[in-house]
Every structure is written in structure tokens, then in C-alpha cells.
Design brief:
Structural class: mainly alpha
Largest sheet: 2 strands, antiparallel
Strand order of the largest sheet: 1-2
Helix content: 25-40%
Distance between the termini: 39 Å
């Protein structure tokens, strides 16, 4: 299983919170690449676990804090 920004972007508008099955269904319905569906299927799930955001699926997903952008400067 591997994630890239491009692959993760297909889940950015997913109906969070969602279960693994809901995310797979969403990816298929929105026409996400096969890699996205395969990554979701490869995730280990513990009894109907509910994911609150992409960060729970891909902990290295960049957030606004990861970008060195000083808003006060501009």
C-alpha cells in the first residue's frame, strides 16, 4: 500500500467520517484510479472502524502546518 498526494486527493471530498467500505464505494463512484481502491482494500480494519479524516488512513498526509508559509508576511 502506498499513498501519494495525487491519490489522497481523490478522498479529500469523501463523506468523513466514513468506514472502509464507504470509502471504497465513494472511490469507485467518483472514478478514482484503481490504486486508490486497492490501497483502501489493503487497509486492515478492526470491526467497522470509522475514519474521521485522511490523516487516519495516511498519517503522513501533509497539513497546513507542514507548509512553511508565513501569512502575516503577505
Amino acid at each position: 500500500m502506498y499513498w501519494t498526494l495525487e491519490l489522497a486527493s481523490y478522498l479529500s471530498d469523501a463523506p468523513w467520517p466514513a468506514s472502509k467500505d464507504e470509502l471504497i464505494d465513494y472511490a469507485i463512484r467518483t472514478g478514482a484510479p484503481l490504486e486508490v481502491v486497492e490501497n483502501l482494500q489493503a487497509m486492515e480494519e478492526e470491526e467497522e472502524e470509522i475514519y474521521e479524516s485522511i490523516q487516519e488512513i495516511w498519517p503522513d498526509f501533509p497539513t497546513e502546518e507542514d507548509y512553511l508559509w508565513n501569512e502575516e508576511e503577505y
